[in-house]
Amino acid sequence: MASSEFLGFSSSTLLLAALTSLIGYVSVLYVYRIYFSPLSHIPGPKLAAATRWYEFYYDAIKTGHFYREVEQMHRVYGPIVRITPYEVHINDPAFFNELYNVTKKLDKDPWYYQWLDRNGSIFATIDSDIHKRRAGVIKKAFSTSSVAKIEPVLKKHFGTYCRLLETSRADKKQLNLSDVYRSLAVDVITDLSLPESMNLLETPDLGAAHSAFIRDMTEFSLWNRHFPWITPLLLKIPRWLIGLQGETALNVIDSLEEQKEQARKVIANGGKSVSSKTYPVIMNEVYKSPDLPPQDKSVKRLEDEIGILIGAGSETTGHTLATITYHVLSNPDVHQKLKDELRSSFTNEDLEDVLSYKKLEHLPYLNACIQEGLRLASSVCGRLPRINKVQPTTYTSSITSQSYHIPAGTPMSMSIRDIHYNVSIYPSPWDFKPERWLGEQKVLSERGFAAFNRGSRSCVGKNLAMAELQMAIGNLFGRFDVTKEEGLGRADVELEHDCFSPFTVRASKGVVVNVV
Ligand code: HEM
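Above: the input record for the complex with protoporphyrin IX containing FE. Below: its predicted structure, written as tokens.
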């Protein structure tokens, strides 16, 4: 047999046959997906309906730009669009409560939520029943009464934050609050949940390297969504080889290893606190919980939970705080009103010490600024796909009254940002207007508010987050005089890359301020 032949066929004949088969397969798939799929009646661009490579291009190659395509699809095709061969996206505030509530037991979409390779965390747990079991312990730790008990922990970390502001004032040195806010949130969440706290605000770079690591890892993970073998494979590559890729790749690997180490410590100590922590440490509580089976206490599952607590607890809070700070400093009237409220509500003696959230939670203007910041920041910008495994769903457009049948098993997603920027709920949605949350407009504004999502999969850290937002903004504007660094602009807080968390343009230096 000649080397260029196989079973009597020449190599060129074989190549032609392979090519013809491939073209045939792709054509049949295209025709099926566009004309015969159970989703073929849902409007949307044909290319997006034909192949997931469309999303891949904007999501992975263009780093989190698919959201822009989805927004454009809605402008062209209306409130429901087929954004991939398998998924529909809806932009209609009237449908939000139907999709995200406590009564319907919807699953999360495994394809979408696998991107961080944290599949054992409550965040990425797909099945609603397994989620209920796992989330119980963590929800208890963040209930209003539990957050009240950890006030001393908050005061300690916000004390460090206020000292940094004082030092910055004394040394006349600018402060990058984008980094400081993220690090502050990491210090709080790691103190509350891990055997060892990270104390990033006590490091020379105030945690800037950690913020960079979270961003690099999250952006890289977009590729993992499309090729879920990438992260597990990366973790098998020897450290020296990864080192050839540079510092960033090493930082990612080292931080992941550190999280694994913390999980091992929880197990090795049998869930007992070995540090000076006198309050229940969340991961210890998870490990000791009688409600969880042994498989829910493996190193990998604890490690997944730790990674998510750190990421979810810091990026969201950090981005929201940076957004509020930028907008308050950019609106002199708002800035003045906020300072007036804070400074007239406390004595000089009160203002010498860290203001606790218990003193701040009832101040109307402060909380209006926070609500408005949560809305504009929409710190979870990723779409949130849910699946009803059992029953089909009917979506009726609140605008055209047209109904669409969505088969059981279809991922259906909505984006919090779409609701928060809807003109019928929030007129001039791009403007920072704390007044929306006061007086008569408040009812409508609150009806649309979804920063922490709604229903059974809503944010478990909401109470902690609110306390942190109140303390960070209340202390900053109540106790310090701050000005914007020249050049600071809206792009420094605006969503550019949707990595589930909103990331700004890479060139941004963050929200840099002077304390005067
Ligand atoms: C401004 C701050 C925050 C915002 C805007 C926010 C927003 C959200 C949203 C929208 C979700 C739902 C995600 C989904 O449906 O897939 C969520 C889930 C979650 N958040 Fe937050 N979050 C914030 C702060 C925190 C903090 C401080 C923690 C710390 C514990 C935290 C931990 C979590 C966890 C663990 C989940 C997954 C919950 C589950 O699936 O049961 N978040 N958050």
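Notes for the reader.
Residues 122-123, 135, 189, 308-309, 312-313, 316-317, 320, 379-380, 384, 451-453, 457-461, 464-465 surround protoporphyrin IX containing FE (CB under 6 Å).
The chain has a mean pLDDT of 94.
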